[in-house]
Amino acid sequence: MNQTRTTTRPIDPGTLSHESWKIFQIMAEFVAGFEQLSAISPSVTVFGSARFTPENPYYQLTEQIGRDLSEAGFAVVSGGGPGIMEAANKGAYAGPSPSVGLNIRLAHEQHANPYQDISLEFRHFFARKVMFVKHASAYVVLPGGFGTLDELAEILTLVQTGKTRKIPIILVGSPFWQGLLDWFHSSLLNAAHTIEAQDLALISLVDDSKAVVDTIFDYYEHRSFEPSVQEQSMLLQL
After folding, report:
1. Regarding predicted confidence, which is higher, 18 or 69?
2. Would residue 17 count as lying in a domain?
């Protein structure tokens, strides 16, 4: 029977030096993000597809959501690119609260939209993801593709496992999301028992901008938008 043996090889000093310097680049992204975003509370992070054009109904709905959130006193944070991200920033940019874009360098699809009061650029997805989560008072998720599903799964996992504080996770668009939620219930909860009923309770499903704003204010009716001391300690371990 053939066996594969793990062997060690000499590390090229040039490669090691390059990897070491990457650490400082990553640190710089975190420092810039913390400094720029620490003063924008309360804020709402909006996720969704980069591919929707201004003629798409979800683009138009997101623009209204961004404007209504801004009028309600929330900074609006998006990925800074086109599509749903642009719509969220465009709506917020027309309102009184900051419009924030956390841009990522990609080979295609991503380019910074012009509706940003605060614009940051990231090379690393993981640093950018921390910024989406750390300062948010709610998450609003519009229809999207793999990137949006990745972000939704990430925030659900972080809340479920107690790595970040429990805040509203609002899906917008019943026609798009209901099938996925049904699958969560039938397959993950009832058939495989890989989640619990309380995990599904983390999610709200709405269809209009007013419901987004109302859901957030209903959640915070008897609590502060600012993290508690315990939640601040939790966020340090994010």
Report:
1. 69
2. no
In a domain, 15, yes or no: no
Q: Is the pLDDT of residue 236 over 80?
A: no
Asked if residue 227 belongs to a domain, the reply is: yes
How does residue 19 score in pLDDT terms, banded at 50, 70 and 90? confident
What CATH code is carried by the domain that includes residue 81? 3.40.50.450
Per-residue pLDDT tens digits for 188-206: 999 999 999 999 999 999 9
Confidence category of residue 20, pLDDT binned at 50, 70, 90:
confident
Entry pTM? 0.88
Domain assignment present for residue 232? The answer is yes
> 30 lies in which domain range?
25-236
Number of domains comprising the chain = 1
**DSSP character string of the chain:** ---PPP---PPPHHHHHHHHHHHHHHHHHHHHHHHHHTT--SEEEEE--S---TTSHHHHHHHHHHHHHHHTT-EEEE-SSSTHHHHHHHHHHTSSS-EEEEEE--SSS----S--SEEEEES-HHHHHHHHHHTEEEEEE-S-SHHHHHHHHHHHHHHHTTSS----EEEE-HHHHHHHHHHIIIIIIIIS--S-HHHHTTEEEE-SHHHHHHHHHHHTTTS-SSPPHHHHHHHHT-
Whether the pLDDT of residue 151 is over 70: the answer is: yes
Q: 185-191: long-range contacts at Cβ-Cβ below 8 A with a sequence spacing of 24 or more?
A: none
